[in-house]
Amino acid sequence: MSIDEQIMGILGIEDTTGSVDTPTPGDEASLSVAASSVSTFQSVVSGFAFASTDGKTLRRSSRLIKRATNCKVENTAVELSEEKTTKSSASAVELEPGTSIKIRKRKSLTGLTRINSTKKKQKRGYADPEKYAHLNGLRDVLGMELDVLFCGINPGEYSATVGHHFANPTNHFWRCLHASGFTDELISPSEDYTLADRFSLGLTNLVDRPTAGQDELSNGEQTAGVPSLLSKVARHRPYVMCFIGLGIAKMVKTYCLPRRNSSVSQASPSIGFQPYKLVYDNDQKDVPRVKQTLFYAVPSTSGRVVQFQRDDKTKILKDLRDKLADIKSGSFDSSAFHPVSASLIQVSA
């Protein structure tokens, strides 16, 4: 079977020539049938040809030419054996032995180096207090013997503008607080002042000065804020002080565990319970319920902290929430935590 006969079979053209292989001279009927078959075949094939509607000459797209140049497309002739066949959408066609076809083989691009155009955001650097002098600090939400006192690094620019803690819409604090079980409903930042009375929770900051970012604070400001923060803790005696951000935990750990007194002070602060606690001398007439304050750290709830997603932060807070009952009952084992006497810290009036 010739290739022409194979193609005619695919296109569904019936061989109407019958047994007439070669028309004899003078046989006009046979010649007419043969001419009709050729004409039918040509009309069917012409239906697959692309015809320009505007009369313009077709040309290759410059984009495709550029892509072919960049990728160094190679045309490779592949010899097919008698057993190999090629399939079309209609049926499979068996090629004659020795028939070759050309295929376009695209060179692999896996060896190319991707260029990352994303630029790393630069830190702002220290900001003079005059830059945010028009903003006021936030009022602490405090109470005696709260379950948890949450501590941020300092008020953000947006929070200081509206006058409420963790008020930036991109901050996860309030949603994590609710999802972890500390509140039975999602609290709005404008209701932050109700936390102490409704849920036995408090809010404060290491540094009172508002800035757009932590990097605009000096190390001296943050270090100087630690004694004042611990004095606040010793006065109000929460069961747990929870740092919102590992940077705060590092500052407090350095203060509570000087290197000359503890080998664990050299390790970086970790998520969860910290290796120290603030203990109280119960020499007062009315002995308070809280005998010690434990310290706990979670990643910053800022939306810019992408190393930990909101679900991760919620889980870490939930771990604290689940242990709170044992902490309040005194059954939580904190014997491995280094005790820091509250009497060594000057309590502010």
UniProtKB/TrEMBL annotation:
Gene3D superfamilies in the record: Uracil-DNA glycosylase-like domain
Presence of the UniProt keyword DNA repair in the record: yes
Gene Ontology MF term list: pyrimidine-specific mismatch base pair DNA N-glycosylase activity; uracil DNA N-glycosylase activity
Domain Uracil-DNA glycosylase-like residues, every copy: 145-321
SUPFAM superfamilies: Uracil-DNA glycosylase-like (SSF52141)
Record-level GO BP terms: base-excision repair, AP site formation
Family annotation (Pfam families): UDG (PF03167)
UniProt keyword annotations, A-Z: DNA damage, DNA repair, Hydrolase
UniProt name for this protein: Uracil-DNA glycosylase-like domain-containing protein
